[in-house]
Task: structure prediction
Amino acid sequence: MGRGSVVAAGSNIAEEVRAAHEAPTDLTIHVLTDRRWVSLSSPAKWRRAIQSRDLERHSTIRIVRGDEDPEQMSAGDAPELAELFEQLAPLLPDPPEPQLEGAGARPASISEDAAAPPEKPQLIAKPVSTPAISGRTVPGPKLGRGEVSPVPARTKAALTPDAAWTAISSVTSPGPAPPLPSARKWTPPPGAPVAKARRNDLRRWAAWAVIGVACAVALTQSPLTRVGMVVSAAALALLMWPRARGPEGKRAVAEFRAAREAWAAVQREWSGRASVTPFDEARSQLETAKSAYDKLMAKRGRLLAELNQRSFQMDRHLSGILIRSAHIPGVGASRVTTLSAHGYRTAKDVNGGVQHLYGFGPATTQRLLQWRAHCERSLRYNPRLSEDPKEVARIDALVKPESDALTATLAAGPEELERLRARIIAAREELQPRLEAAWSTFAVAKLKRRAA
Result:
């Protein structure tokens, strides 16, 4: 076959494909290109995208059929595109060889109104963005027609309880808060009135000593002399006691009170924000949640193990057989009512105690016990009942509410502990300089007040 025949055959195929896909449709295909979803709302646009290699079998697409939810898949798996890929495969050009940057034309995009395929984009050696496909674009996740929106970020997968606990255990504690500056030895800064403060301290001690000696001596004297000695000693001590005099002394007292209040305030803030207590309490709560989850899973295991026990299957089997639904000779409606009133409603309830009921003699009791024995023989014991999907689902439904709550608590645990740890460390770094400054100011103010 000559080259002209091949070109004519290719043109005929392209015309057939175009004619078959120009009809309106309520199906829209969205192609992921350059991290954006771009809409191709007609078969003609699908064909042009395939011809320009903007839409290939491995491309990620979303299909919207009418008002249905979007379905994401590879383009090669979409039945609507499979025929187009097969029909257009002979007409597609071979992929161009990579060229050095700058050699060749810039990548071209598909125009919405273009009737013919554009020129092939020239590849370059360094990575470039995918050519944009013009047309109406949609935001996700509800793919209506409208504006361009970025690809939604992937949600963080929830941790399993075991993985969450491993992550929780790996979070290190910020440790106990460092000791306060007041617990360390303080060195007065240069220029502090240390000597004057010591002299005033000695005067205070001397005043107390005078009062003490006077009181001791007065105990050996007569009452009148005792009073005179105490009053004299108090007057002498008052004269010896250092007092703040003048504006400087009053200013020292005011500075001391202000510094004391500031030191107490920063201490309270330090205790509230720098303490490791919130972290320890959060970890203790997570430990309680993990223990509760382990106990719940142990309970689930016991329930599954009970399914394989003959006694459990027998009790459940007999509990499902009602006396009122059975045909037992000599046990009519009135006797069924009497049995039900005394708690005998199923085959499991029937025992020798029936004979103590009014109107039930040994013969009737025997017939009831024989009926129960017959029900027991009808049990179909299953030693592998715990593997039955229905039974497993039934037990999982029993533990699911509590399991989901505990799983959510544990899954959020690592992030919560990391947040608390970072907050405590940041608070310590922020408050430590303020704590040191407040203590130094308070110590100096206290020294000045002693010296005043």
